[in-house]
Amino acid sequence: MRTQRQVVDYSLQKRAVLRELLAGRVGTYDVCDASPYLKNAARFHGEPTDRRCPICRSENLTLVHYIYGDELKQSAGQARTLTELPVLAMTLREFQVFVVEVCLGCDWNHLVEQYLLGRDGLAGDNEGTGEQDVAAEGAGRRRREAQR
User: From the DSSP assignment, how many helices (H) and strands (E) are in the chain?
Assistant: First the structure.
């Protein structure tokens, strides 16, 4: 998506959790604790992947995209499919997306990444940049007056 920005990747945190699990400092029940709501969101709104679960290694992981933002109002916190995100990005100014990977077999879940989407990320979009336009206009006027 071309408006995707401010991406935060949580792969190092995931690696640390898996390292703690393999070392025995954290139990399987501590990391395999997906809520029923998250599992339902994965079933009905998730995007299947071809990556195996790092815990049970028998199921493929599913990615769930949650959206949050002021413009969303009642829709904030809902899971959306990956195909819905570009449509929302063109209609809303800015909202945040959290991507969670879920294993439906053993209940493993982990935040994979988060990022911003929306029209504010478009380079050619002048909406909401009125102050910058006024400042540029003022600088151009001062240059013309100085040349006279």
Answer: 5, 6
- Residue pair 64/38 in contact by the 8 Å Cβ criterion: yes
Q: Measure Cα distances from 95 to 3, 89, 92, 115 in Å.
A: 11, 8, 7, 9
Q: State how far the Cα of 119 lies from the Cα of 125, in Å rounded to an integer.
A: 7
β-bridge partners, 62: 48, 102
Give residue-wise pLDDT tens across range 38-47: 999 999 999 9
Which pLDDT does position 132 carry in this prediction?
Answer: 45
Alpha helices per DSSP H over the chain: 11-23, 28-31, 36-45, 85-91, 130-147
Hey, is 138 helix, strand or coil? helix
